[in-house]
Amino acid sequence: MNRWLLWVPLGLFAVFFAIVAAGLMRPKDNIVESKMVGKPIPEFTLPAAVEQRPALSSTNLATGEPQMLNIFASWCVPCIAEAPQLLELERAGVKINGIASRDTPQDIANFLNRWGNPYARIGTDVRSIVQLELGSSGVPETFIVDSKGVIVHQHVGDIRKEDLPELLKIWKEAG
Amino acid sequence: MIAEAGLIALWLAAALAFLQFALCTIGLTKGQDQFFAAVRPVAIAQGVLVTVSFLLLVWLFIRSDMSVQLVVSNSVSMKPLIYKISGTWGNHEGSMLLWVAILGVAGAAIGVFERTLKLRTLVTTLAAQAFISIGFYAYLLIASNPFERSFPVPEDGQGLNPLLQDIGLALHPPTLYIGYVGLSIAFSFAVGAMINRDVGPDFAKAMRPWVLGAWVFLTLGITAGSYWAYYELGWGGWWFWDPVENASLMPWLAATALLHSVTVLATRDGLRAWTLMLAVVAFSMSMIGTFLVRSGVLTSVHAFAVDPERGSFILALLAIYIGGAMALFALRVGTVKEGSQFEPISREGSLVANNLLLSAILGIVFIGTLYPLVVEGFTGEMISVGAPYFNLATGPVALILVAIMAAGPLLRWRRDKAKALLNRISIPVFLTAAALFALVLFTTTMSVLSLLGLSLAAGIAVASFAPLWKRNLRRTPMHTYGMILAHFGVAVALVGMASESSFTEEKLVAATPGDEVTVNDWKVKLHAIEPMAGPNWTALEARVTAQYANGTNYEITPQNRMFPAAQTQTSEAALLTRWNGQLYVVLGDSDEQGRWQLRIWWKPFVTMIWLGGVLIALGGLLAMVGRLRRAVRQRKQREYAEEWI
């Protein structure tokens, strides 16, 4: 056997070590300002994801009131983690719209039933096309749009309890 | 006093682990063989002390001793006894103590039972085992002391996460941990073999029962965990590809590969380096799994208390143990003689294919689990890799793997002919083709993967018994029956998985008492919603009757439970098991008009998933017992022969 091949396992472990060590050291800060902030929501129309909620298009997001747009998926674990926070936002009076990414109606219905449904409208984005147009590459992500449908904020990753005051503040200021 | 006694026992056990390591290394390096006599007793004493420490913690939980911080934050005095006990490992510190206790007991078990290994290899193995223990003792004593006192003493505790108050959880973690940590024995064996360049059939035969034992527990633990998630989360799914689930799957995949390659080493003296590597990787995956779960670097539904400092501690341990073993591998294995050779079409060839495919699945799961972390590192974005990736990537590889599993046992060692194999396997191949044809013709809803899975399962179910063809059934060794049973279990589980994913029927309705819903052959009727009270919860219970097509009536009572101490709600699904599937009913919330959400699933043959898992574990057990009996018999014969001479 080739001698250097024997070092491959150690090399792979070193790579693993570097990745997780970097992951451990990195401060958990997931508020990233994206390029889409300050621009209007791109035009899109998505079919309804589940029977209980109407479909979603970009015109629903420019209605004269500030709203939130949450991209989620039933197969996404952080989405479960942020579900209680979304419900809390809904209770605080925020209108939240959902885009379900790469999902099936049945799985979405299961997800909403299990973890709560804070959404006013839910569109289904089976091939992540709208998601990519929005400048989002992962789930979960949450956008805040103002009364004219302009994106004022993008929250990448799950919304934690400590993020709520900040998000509510931005939402109120967008009004 | 109990808490202090537990802590003292833990410190003493740590000291003994240190002594064990010192005795072994001094003896080995200075050639002082008389040191070795003390090693076994020390290993046993260490195992006993750490077990005592763990039992004392259990006792604290049983007594609801609220002067101990861990009991306060994870227990409450009005709770059934069984959940007080299981609360011991329903938290970080307690489960780490259980982990370390099993590590200590594993070392003691080597000391008591291992009789075939060469002395120097055995001593090195016990040194490695002690060296691992030292690190984890340090971790417990420095960063996760389970016996810490709380001051001031509160009146009552905060309660255990209600999801964990379930009989499934009482048993699932200990079983899984025995499997996880049992793999440390294979790891230490490999270290012993590498240092002493003692790799060969005798070594493999000594290691095999230990691997089988750990693997049996791991299989049972994963099966139980999957069933627990299925009925307790009330979500109807049985595998979520959650990081914590993946953490348990990865050691299993490595251990499965290991127990197949160790057979090649034992029987044909082949795959020497590869087997050593797998023995290292299997336990490394256990440690990595523990790290991923405990450090909180990955987001998971299994939310444990997360502390980055603890994460760094475990990561440092990983670097020492895994890095050390892999460096040793790179330095030493080049000097281990290569084993014997074989042709591609042979029993060895099929086992190599098995190993490569299992490793491929392991790689896919490993990358998928870590990928979110990599992306976050480079772009700062948080993503989640979910079931779509895992199913699509692992599914096809797994199907090829099970196809090879059907053929492998029918091949001869060293060299065989493809044509002869085709002859032997013609009936299963025909069955698979027929099943595929029938399914394509008569079903419409199946995905390609389930279609292939179900038809392959038909072939494998028959092929798994093919090794018995033309054999004297009474003289066929027990371990062969074990293999047959385990392979048959794979076919059974495969039927369950394919059938569940293709033929499940689901209804979500808003019902008022008196309403009736039809799902498949069932008529489900909601009669009333009534309040209920348990020892530490209150619930709304739905009285539901389910009538099967043949007229039989069943009463079921799905519940919605409130746990006031933890302020959480859980849904207790009602399950009705028939031979051909399960009816799964969940009670949801009510709306303003007084209607209640009812979710009803009919899942045909879903129970076969776990039945298959149990069969696989039983097969492993049978193989282990068979191997051990044979080893004992051979040793007795040898001793008898030596007496004669």
Reconstruct the topology from this structure.
The complex is a heterodimer of chains A (175) and B (645).
Chain A lengths: L7 H18 L19 E2 L9 E2 L9 E6 L4 H15 L4 E6 L3 H11 L3 E7 L3 H5 L7 E5 L5 E6 L7 H10 L2
Parallel strand pairs in A: 3-4, 4-5
Antiparallel strand pairs in A: 1-2, 3-6, 6-7
Chain B lengths: L1 H29 L5 H27 L6 H6 L6 H7 L4 H22 L5 H25 L23 H30 L4 H32 L10 H26 L3 H24 L12 H25 L14 H33 L7 H21 L10 H7 L1 H17 L5 H16 L14 H26 L1 E7 L4 E4 L2 E12 L4 E11 L4 E4 L2 E5 L4 E5 L1 E5 L2 E10 L5 E9 L3 H37 L1
Antiparallel strand pairs in B: 1-10, 2-3, 3-4, 4-5, 4-6, 6-7, 8-9, 9-10
Helix pairs in contact in B: 1-2, 1-6, 2-4, 2-5, 4-7, 5-6, 5-7, 6-7, 6-11, 7-8, 7-10, 8-9, 8-18, 9-10, 9-12, 10-11, 12-13, 13-16, 15-16, 16-17, 17-18
Task: Write up what this structure looks like.
The complex is a heterodimer of chains A (175) and B (645). With 175 residues, chain A is an alpha/beta fold. Helix content of chain A is 34%, strand content 19%. Chain A has one domain (30-173): Glutaredoxin (3-Layer(aba) Sandwich). In chain A, the strands form two sheets. A five-stranded mixed sheet of chain A has the order 5-4-3-6-7. Chain A has a two-stranded antiparallel sheet with strand order 1-2. By secondary structure, chain B is of the alpha+beta class. Helix content of chain B is 64%, strand content 11%. In chain B, strands 2, 3, 4, 5, 6 and 7 form a six-stranded antiparallel sheet that branches. Chain B has a four-stranded antiparallel sheet with strand order 1-10-9-8, covered by helices on one side. In chain B, a hairpin with a 4-residue loop joins strand 6 (559-563) and strand 7 (568-572). The longest helix of chain B has 37 residues, at 608-644. At the A-B interface, helix 1, helix 2 and helix 3 of A face helix 10, helix 11 and helix 12 of B.
